[in-house]
Amino acid sequence: MVEIRQALKSAWFFLFLCGSVSFAQRGVFNSAYKGNFNVQLGTASTYFQASTLNFSGSKFDFVLHNSNLRQPNNTLALPSSEWSENQYKLTVGYTVKRGILLSFNIDNFKYLIPPQELLISGRVAPGYDQLGGLSGTYDNTPVSMDTLGFAFNVSSAKFISTRLEFLQNLYRVKNRMFVINAVYGIGIGALHSASDVVFGPAEQSRISGLSGFGLNLNVGLRFEFFRHFYMMPLLNGGYLLQRNLRIDISDATQHVRHNVGFGQVSINIGAVFFLGKKENCDCPHF
Predict the structure, then answer these.
(1) 285 assigned to some structural domain
(2) I want to staple 119 with a disulfide (CB 3.0 to 4.6 A). Which of 38, 65, 224, 246 is the partner?
(3) Confidence (pTM)
(4) CB burial readout 137-161, b (16+ within 10 A) else e
(5) Do 17 and 112 belong to one domain?
(6) How far apart are CA 26 and CA 41, in angstroms?
(7) 39 phi, psi to nearest 5 deg
(8) pLDDT tens-digit readout, 11-30
(9) Are the beta carbons of 223 and 232 closer than 8 angstroms?
(10) Tell me: the pLDDT tens digits for 165-200?
(11) Distances in Å between the alpha carbon of 136 and those of 111, 126, 148, 198, 252?
(12) By residue range, what is the domain housing residue 8?
């Protein structure tokens, strides 16, 4: 009888131990679980391909061939008090299936035409451009910006996109206090831009509005710490298709069109958390 009781006690202890271990395994937070949210903030340095810009309006119609574009600051910029002056990246994501992340993103690009020799084709009505000095007809004519007052600047091109990303585990310690995940993604979305130009009869106010759309691909590594926080260096590339950059608030016919490819290096920091009830997830609350 004593032996039976001892055997029952041993069995209950074994079941309790197995259940505890099983619960502990299920309870370890996994950043790739379905139902997790993540919030991410980053800053970037962007390289732009040469681009052909089309300027159209009732008084002009000309093209700048293969113009070089660059961002105002060629390095990764730390956030400043003027948030709009940074090339920032903001992401809110949701894991729709284990290892599959759907996110809403705002990537803020900034670029301009730096001083260079412009190759111009088209026409500008005589006397119209009192600021920049362009006038007459051009046929693949090289003109140095050092002799003109002309300038073009996109102070903010917000790429508002939906992105699908895949997480692939590369390394983790047993308790998941440190994890390395590979990240691959593809995104598509709209562009909301603010641009200004030194060109025409008078200085114009900066004009903003929907201007086109874009697409991008990204790949990176997500270094996760303490199960909920991560740092992610990311390589990003794609196209911005600017179809309607307004340059005169009083004349809707005046706009700039161009397509430009870009490559980007960014550093992002983020957090992963679960908002639902514990019983709906086999991971603990954050």
Answers:
(1) no
(2) 65
(3) 0.81
(4) ebeeeebebeebebbbbbbbbbbbb
(5) no
(6) 29
(7) -125, 135
(8) 344 333 333 333 333 456 77
(9) yes
(10) 999 999 988 888 899 999 999 999 999 999 989 998
(11) 28, 6, 14, 17, 23
(12) 1-30
